[in-house]
Structures are given as C-alpha cells and as structure tokens.
Design a protein that fits this description.
heterodimer, A: 262 residues, alpha+beta, four-stranded antiparallel β-sheet, 9 strands, B: Rna Polymerase Sigma Factor, Chain: A, Arc Repressor Mutant, subunit A, 2 domains, 10 helices, 75% helix
Chain lengths: 262, 191
C-alpha cells in the first residue's frame, strides 16, 4: 500500500531504486530502501520492472551459458537430500553456502591449500612432469566385478586409508582407498559421464599440507567406474578435475571434488 | 504429475506450482529453460566457474524448497531467478577474499536436462535486441549500469571508478534502466 504522504526522504530513496535493483547499494542503503519498499507499492513495482529489465542484460551474447552436466546432478542430489531431511528453519542460502564451504573439505584449490583459486596453476615439479605419462598410465580401469573386489579388498587391508571425495554441495562423488605402499583405488560411481573429448583427472596432494605439491595421480577417463593408481610420497589429500581428453600436466580448473586424508 | 509433453508446454508459473507439489521433473524443466542465463550471469559477475555453479545450485535448490517465494504477479520466473543469482553472486564478490581472487584471476532418467536449441536461438535473438536497446543509452548510463550489474560494484564504487559524483551515477543507473526498459518494451522483448 502506498502512503498518501511521502516520507521526507522518499525522493532520495527513489533515486536509489535503480542501484537497488542492480544490487549496487551497500548494506546500510539497502536496508533503508528495503524499509521504503515495505511501505511503498509503487516503488516496489518500479524495482520489479527494473529487475525484469536487468534480467535481459543476462542474455547478452558475451555472457557464456553452457551448464556442465554435473551441475544438474549436484542439484538433483541436493534436493534428494532435502526430501529426506526435515529442515523446519532453512538457513539463508548464502549463509548456508558459506557455512558449508567452511565445514566441508574445500573443493577449491585456494581453500584447500591456501593459494589463489580457480585459475592458478597446479604446481608440478619438473621431475614429476617427466614421470607424468608413466603416472597417467598407472590409472587402469577394471572390470566392474573385479573393481568392486579390488576396492573392497584394499579397504580392508591394514593401514589402508579410505576417504570420500566431495563436491561443492557436499555430495560424495567418488571414494578413494590408499594403501601404505602408495597403491590406490578409486570408485567413481557418482561421477557423471563426460563427453568423449573430456576426462576426469585425479590429483594427489603431497608434501607440506599448507603448501603442497599437486601431482597427477592418473586419468580416470570420461565415465569411470573404478581405477587403480599409484601415488608417491606422503599423500594427504586428493582432488578430481575435468580436463580435455589426454589430461594435463598443469590444471587450470577448479576441482569438482576433493578430500583430505585423515 | 505432468507428462513430459505437458511440462514442455507449461508456462513457468505452472511449473513452479508443480515444484510445490514436489515434482522434480518440473524443476528440471525450469532448470533447462533458465540455467544458461543464470550461470552466464553468475560467471560474469564472479569470474569463477565453481563459485558460479554453487550460486546457481543454491538458487535452484532454494526454488525447490520454497517455490512460493516466486510471485508471478511481480514479474517473470527468469527475472526472479536472475535477481537471486545476481544478489548472491554480488554478496560473494563483496567478500574481500573473493574480490581479491577475482582481481588475481583477471590479472592473469533422472530428469534429463537437454540442450534446447530452439530456446538458445531465441535467447540469441533476444540478446541482439537487448544489445540494440543498450545502444540507445548514453555512454555514461551504459557504463554505470554495466559496472554495477556485471562488475558487482556499488554505485559509490562506480562513481569512484568513473570519477563522477555519486549523485550523477545514481541518477544515470536509474534513468538508464528506465530508458532500457522502454526500449525493450518497444522492441517487444519486455511487457
């Protein structure tokens, strides 16, 4: 409902509506406009119209729009959890996002290893580069039944460490078992199939936990059910990225899943 | 529960009601229709693919949880989703760490979700219309709007960046949006 008598500062508040619609106000101004909108339907309508207009800007062609298939898979997993879990007082999504990010094992390289995130180069030492291809070749696919048996056997081996690699939404996309001799097994039952031009690549975090070396532990292929691999040195975590078929020596992609070994 | 054909033919408001009835396929259809612009906007604001996907995921999961938040009398579903995506992306961007990371980077049957070629073509056509509409704005209006919307800056920051008075930038943003809206209505893109 619109007040018959404008508040003294209504003109100034009206002038902020455009910036408000674009989320371009600081928190103090935003709170003032929120209160103004509560009492002024005309202003609310103007903001709605402006947001509709702003939405059109998102259609501009230099805004990329290809959604990876695993995004829907993650949403589906998330709402599957929701339907099984009663949450009478859902947290604000951003708060939840931040909280989840802080409590889960971080997926982004930066959060995991304290260095700049998405576009940073994964450090691979020269000597490790030389051995990359042999490392990549160590990732071998098993037949389904043999895989299950090998993975299960490894998990029961004394000294084995098993961990789930979690996505940004907290979903476990793959599980890894690492044996004391560096032999490892990965089951990727929840990794979505990629196009034949892509592959999942497994990375091992070794050395110092704060400034680790990130070493390729093998290519997993576009639709991995299970693979074996070998990781040298003291491994304290794993991550999975999506790369072009053939893999990379240095990844510029953020991991889709990661885990730290306890 | 609607058939696939019914879902494809349904308008967004109908799909949202179906989501309220816990029809996961209806959410998949909404996702199919709108994920492109949503993800594109989040990526453009955040310059971070992973963060952008997390934001988009949150928005769709929240739509599943609270479909009643969408009020069709207040605008389109696309505008509703994009407003949420933009707001969350900007909130994240304004966290100092995210902004720093962005600056560093810039220095350097389950429900199936198919590619919808027809929709993509339609969006490209709309995009061309939007671009033409943007061209009707003054340089100052266009610059201020783009810095605020895609750059995630507050209008005060935009004013500092452009070395213009805050009041001028504030006015340009509002006037530019109103002019843009009028141009889009004239072109038949908006109502």
């Amino acid at each position: 409902m619109t007040d018959s008598t404008p508040a003294p500062d209504s003109h100034e508040l009206e002038s902020l509506l455009g910036a408000y619609a674009l989320d371009a106000l600081d928190s103090a101004d935003r709170a003032r406009v929120d209160a103004y909108l509560e009492r002024d339907a005309t202003a609310r309508a103007e903001v709605d119209d402006m947001r509709e207009t702003a939405a059109s800007l998102a259609l501009l062609p230099d805004t990329p729009s290809d959604a990876p298939p695993e995004l829907w898979a993650r949403i589906e997993q998330a709402i599957g959890v929701q339907t099984r879990t009663v949450r009478p007082d859902p947290a604000d999504p951003i708060d939840e996002l931040e909280a989840r990010r802080s409590r889960r094992i971080p997926v982004r390289w930066s959060a995991t290893i304290g260095i700049a995130a998405a576009a940073i180069a994964i450090v691979v030492l020269a000597a490790q580069v030389a051995s990359l291809h042999s490392q990549l070749n160590r990732a071998k696919s098993f037949g389904t039944s043999a895989t299950a048996a090998a993975f299960d056997r490894a998990a029961k081996t004394p000294g084995a460490r098993e961990v789930g690699l979690e996505s940004g939404s907290g979903a476990t996309l793959a599980r890894v078992v690492l044996l004391p001799d560096g032999s490892g097994y990965l089951r990727g039952d929840h990794l979505s199939a990629l196009s034949p031009r892509q592959t999942y690549q497994l990375w091992a975090l070794t050395g110092n936990a704060r400034t680790p070396n990130v070493v390729s532990a093998g290519l997993l292929g576009p639709d991995p059910s299970a693979v074996s691999f070998h990781a040298s040195g003291p491994v304290h975590g794993f991550a999975v990225t999506i790369e072009s078929a053939g893999g990379v020596v240095t990844s510029h992609h953020t991991p889709i899943a990661s885990a730290q070994l306890s | 529960m609607m058939s696939e054909g019914q879902r494809r033919a349904a308008d967004d408001a109908t799909l949202v009601r179906a989501v309220g009835a816990r029809d996961e396929h209806a959410l998949a259809e909404l996702y199919r229709r709108h994920v492109g612009p949503c993800l594109g906007l989040a990526r453009r604001v955040l310059s971070d693919r992973t963060l952008a996907e997390e934001v988009v995921q949150e928005v769709f999961v929240r739509t599943w949880r609270e479909p009643s938040r969408f009020d069709p009398t207040r605008g389109s579903m696309r505008a509703f989703l994009l407003a949420q995506v933009h707001g969350r992306a900007v909130d994240l961007l304004r966290a100092e760490s995210a902004r720093r990371a962005r600056e560093e980077r810039e220095a350097l049957r389950r429900p199936s979700v198919d590619i919808d070629l027809e929709r993509e073509v339609m969006q490209l056509t709309e995009a061309e219309t939007v671009r033409r509409a943007l061209a009707t704005l003054s340089d100052g209006e266009r610059e201020a709007i783009e810095l605020a919307y895609f750059g995630g800056h507050t209008y005060r920051e935009v004013a500092a960046l452009l070395e213009q008075p805050e009041g001028t930038v504030k006015s340009r943003i509002r006037a530019g949006l109103l002019r843009l809206r009028a141009a889009l209505i004239e072109a038949g893109v908006s109502e």
